[in-house]
Each structure stands twice: as C-alpha cells, then as structure tokens.
Amino acid sequence: MKSASPQHVFRALADPTRRAIFEELTRQGEQTVHALTSFAGVSQPAVSKHLTVLKKARLVRHRRAGRETHYRAQPEALAPMADWLRAYSTFWRERFDRLEALLDGMEP
Amino acid sequence: MKSASPQHVFRALADPTRRAIFEELTRQGEQTVHALTSFAGVSQPAVSKHLTVLKKARLVRHRRAGRETHYRAQPEALAPMADWLRAYSTFWRERFDRLEALLDGMEP
DNA sequence: ACAACTCATAACCAAATGGTGATGATTCCG
DNA sequence: CGGAATCATCACCATTTGGTTATGAGTTGT
C-alpha cells in the first residue's frame, strides 16, 4: 500500500468540497459519480475533477461497472498526514510517547 | 485555548513553504521574521504573508520585542486536524482504540 | 540626529485553482 | 435500433494564491 506524497494529501484535503466528498465516501461507503454529484452541490465535471485530485493523493479508488464509476475512500492514504502530525505536534506526540512507554514494558 | 476552524488549519498547511516555516518553528523554537526569511528562501514580505495565514489558523503566535517580531509555533492548534483525522481514518482509529483499551485496562 | 535595521503593508503580476457548459465515448433499456 | 444515462475531458472564465518590488512606520546603535 504505497502512499502518495504528503504534499498531495495536504493539498487534496485543503479544499472543503473535496474534504466533504472524502467524508461522504468514508461514512456512506462506495458511491457513483452521479450520487456524489447530487451530494456535493456542484456540477458533475467539478466532481470528476475533485475525484481526480483525490485519486492522485491515493485517497480514493475507483471501480468501473458498466456506465457507472464507483468511488470508495482509502483512509490508509491519510498515513502521510498522520505521520506528519505525530512528528510535529508535541501535543499529539505526548499521547504516543505514553503508548510507546507502555508497550516497551514500563521502564522507570 | 480556542481553536481556529479546521478549514483555516487545512488551508494553512497545504502550502509547502508555510509547512516548512511551521516545522522550523516547531523544531528550533522561537524565531524572528529575519531568521525565518533566510531560512525560507523567499522574500521577507512573502514570509510575513505566510505568517499572517498561519496566525489566522492560530498555528503561530507572535511577540514584539523592539523592532523584531518573534514567532513561535502553537502545536495545539493542530487539534482540529488531529480530530478530523481520528474521525475519518479507520486505520488511525484502530491504533487509538488500542491505546484507549490499554489505558483503560490498566486503570484499576 | 541620523543611518541602518526590522517588519508589515501596498501595489502589482503570473500561475494555479475551482467552477462552468459543451462534447463525446460508453453503456443500458424499451 | 435508438434514446437516455453516466462520466471524463475539453475549452473557457473569474478568483485566489504565492510571489515580487517599493514604501513607510517604528527601533536601535553610533
């Protein structure tokens, strides 16, 4: 499961429409472009373009079925962003350090 | 410690130069605009504009000291992004659930 | 006092971005 | 078969974005 560059992921999720599409796919599961279009409130070409950007970030996969294309979220692709967060948020890191300590066998 | 909107945070961190500035402030601590300018490789006004964006996302704070302005990272402001990640990454959630479980199990 | 320094803001510009309607390739169905 | 449906791509447009240089306000050291 190769990841896209962090830049692609950060960029892709910076747009609210794109984030909404990704959230919808995460919550509701696989959706056609048609369904996503009526959900997103923008034109079908706009949705297709957003899906292309999400695809480049590997945040979604697609599956052709007849004339429909079904998209589904690929949350593992959030890993680069999660890794970045863990590295640069001391706030966040503390919680992980506690986990590490626990797992390592509670060294005094 | 009120947080900015997730949108502000996502937007602010989508730009690589801005992310680099934030990373630098996190790693090296407080820095003047001058220092950040020589680090970032863009003009001083560009740095100032980036800092304004980061400030609106509450990712940095500033402190005036004479003619210098010192900026420092405010990693707690990453919370909206971290919350979002936790909510929409099943991958991530699993690791968290394991942490929660561990902590809860050792509670008595 | 004044020259140098630090920084924010203004004015401007090219490129990227997010949107649109039009079109065409496929696919499905009556 | 032929019309309707689904979707990607094209051509285009307005706005935003990230950068620049110029400038001005405040601060410091000589």
UniProtKB/TrEMBL annotation, chains A, B:
Ranges of residues in domain HTH arsR-type: 1-93
InterPro entries (UniProt xref): ArsR-like_HTH (IPR011991), HTH_ArsR_DNA-bd_dom (IPR001845), WH-like_DNA-bd_sf (IPR036388), WH_DNA-bd_sf (IPR036390)
SMART domains the UniProt entry points to: HTH_ARSR
Pfam families noted in UniProt: HTH_20 (PF12840)
UniProt GO MF annotations: DNA-binding transcription factor activity
Name of this protein: Transcriptional regulator, ArsR family
Species annotation: Bryocella elongata
Lineage: Bacteria, Pseudomonadati, Acidobacteriota, Terriglobia, Terriglobales
